[in-house]
Amino acid sequence: MPDAVEVGLGLGGNVGDPVASIRAALDALDKRGIVAVGAVSSIYRTAPWGGVEQADYANACAIGVTRLAPLDLLDAVKTIERDLGRVETLRWGPRVIDIDILFYGEAAIADERLILPHKEILRRAFVLIPLAEIDPERTINGVRVIDAARAIGDDGVTRWEGASRDPI
Length: 168
Fold this sequence. Notes:
Alpha-Beta Plaits; six-stranded antiparallel sheet; globular
């Protein structure tokens, strides 16, 4: 079993009550002992990504600690997604919940199932803005998250009205 490793997660959804889905996913990660969730961002509203017409997304980021190996962590978050009702459909299509592993300590992983740090992390405002809220000094591929967030701008990402600051 690996030592405890700090991990970053991106969570989002746009089917049903996406705020409740994010809260349920964070709760499941913590209660199942998958990730001891520490810092959690506010929840943000984001326009859909990828050209599929659908409802806006709720997005958040969390940082915590895991003892699972990277691929075991991936399997565990995919199980939570399924348990919360996610059905794989179109790439970038509507979903109840999506949990992305953004980083796993300082590890660089290029597996057919998992690339870390997440290959799109520095291009997505809906990840950078919540991540910068909770860990602005984190560096990804030599770039501080806060600098990447400033460079990309808000891209229409706004705080989700009515969602409390603490989603758990």
